[in-house]
Design a protein that fits this description.
single chain; mainly alpha; Four Helix Bundle (Hemerythrin (Met), subunit A); 10 helices; 66% helix; 0% strand
Length: 264
Amino acid sequence: MPILKYLKVHNISMTESHENNGSENLGAVPESTSANEKNQKNSHLIPRIVLQLVSFLIIVGACFFGPAGTFNYWQAWVFICIFFTMMLSISIYLLVKDPALLARRLDRGESRKDQKLAILISSFLLLALFLLPGFDHRYQWSNMPWFLVVVGNLLFFVGYYFNFKVFQANSYASRVVKVEKDTQKVITTGPYAIVRHPMYLAIIIMFGAIPLALGSYWSFIPWFFLIFLLGFRTIDEEILLMEELEGYRAYMEKTKYRIFPGIW
């Protein structure tokens, strides 16, 4: 489903890692030359970022305004502006500060069978999450007060910022479930000191904020099922991490909770 490709923060791999060793000085090579070579090496990512951002605007606009039957849907316009600004800002940050992570985020070649099934199911849930608000707006099912819309947008911003902190802590936070054995290590600091899968927590906050931001109580229904799906993905991922990521079992003993602090 295209909506998963551009909106989901839902196909996320929660593998832990250390920062890339990409800033080593090459002795006699001038700094400007090294910087130019680095920029040229990362320039291939720019067209992919642009394509993703443009596709995001087209797909999200179609999901919101098509079912609504009108462009007179101020909640959708505000949300799109916030979402797009956050996507653009983080994409630029990663392009400059951590292009290796950006490349991993653009990789969607999932290999695990159970994860593929979860991705398929999440595609339908996300599609429902983004289509229902438009129908709700058209037929006025919810009539949500404006201050809850504001709260929803604030919560979405908080969730996205928390997701950004995960990116800063973990350069291996790819979309697919895999372990890069030669270089990857367990991250135990930052958001990973709170829960073992902080990106999933960020996703739950972000997508839980969408029904409020778009003025649709009915959109909480697919979000509710998405939480259980992320729980399934977490359990499956940890099977791989315990087998292939050195030190992960000890990390599980130290950080007790998977997604929800003090709960699970």
